[in-house]
Amino acid sequence: MSIAKVGVIMGSSSDWDVMQNAVRMLKDFGVPYEAQVISAHRMPHDMAEYGAQAYDKGIRAIIAGAGGAAHLPGMMAALTEVPVFGVPVPSRYLRGEDSLLSIVQMPKGVPVATFAIGEAGAANAALHAIATLAMHDEDLRQQLMAFRQKQTEAARAMHLPEVE
Ligand code: RP5
């Protein structure tokens, strides 16, 4: 297996339902990735170690998902120069609005590229990581353009029902 270029991390295994959409996309494009649980609150030292080692081990984008008090993406962005793409995971009581605000409201100087709440956000975070890598990888760029074309054709082929 090739060395991972994208790290997918999440605060809990309960985030997997959403975060697997990022992993699926990376897999479909053949981008080497690693996926693991790293909790900002329950595993703070592991989080710091991951951030310190990410670039040196070949990671060029980090997709970080968390829900509720979603501090993982922001803390990871503070710990590494590797770009962090944040995915707000829907929470039980506030439906992910808490996750979104926790991730998006970063202080000036420490950016997290923040995506939509839930599945679309996870898939789009992966597509954004792929687009970033594709700027230095012609095969990947061609794959991305083919994906976009297929999506366009699917949208053009959509039909609406007749109104009776
Ligand atoms: C966050 O707390 C995780 O990212 C997860 O979304 C949420 C709940 O975690 P569990 O209690 O389900 O493990 O840190």
Automatic annotation (TrEMBL):
Keyword annotations: Isomerase, Lyase, Purine biosynthesis
Catalytic activity: 5-carboxyamino-1-(5-phospho-D-ribosyl)imidazole + H(+) = 5-amino-1-(5-phospho-D-ribosyl)imidazole-4-carboxylate
Family matches, as SMART domains: AIRC
Keyword Lyase assigned: yes
Record-listed E.C. numbers: 5.4.99.18
Listed SUPFAM superfamilies: N5-CAIR mutase (phosphoribosylaminoimidazole carboxylase, PurE)
Pathway linked to the protein: Purine metabolism; IMP biosynthesis via de novo pathway; 5-amino-1-(5-phospho-D-ribosyl)imidazole-4-carboxylate from 5-amino-1-(5-phospho-D-ribosyl)imidazole (N5-CAIR route): step 2/2
UniProt xrefs under InterPro entries: PurE_ClassI, PurE_dom, PurE_prokaryotes
Function: Catalyzes the conversion of N5-carboxyaminoimidazole ribonucleotide (N5-CAIR) to 4-carboxy-5-aminoimidazole ribonucleotide (CAIR).
Protein family per UniProt: Belongs to the AIR carboxylase family. Class I subfamily.
Protein's recorded name: N5-carboxyaminoimidazole ribonucleotide mutase
Species name: Pelistega suis
Lineage, opening ranks: Bacteria, Pseudomonadati, Pseudomonadota, Betaproteobacteria, Burkholderiales
Gene: purE
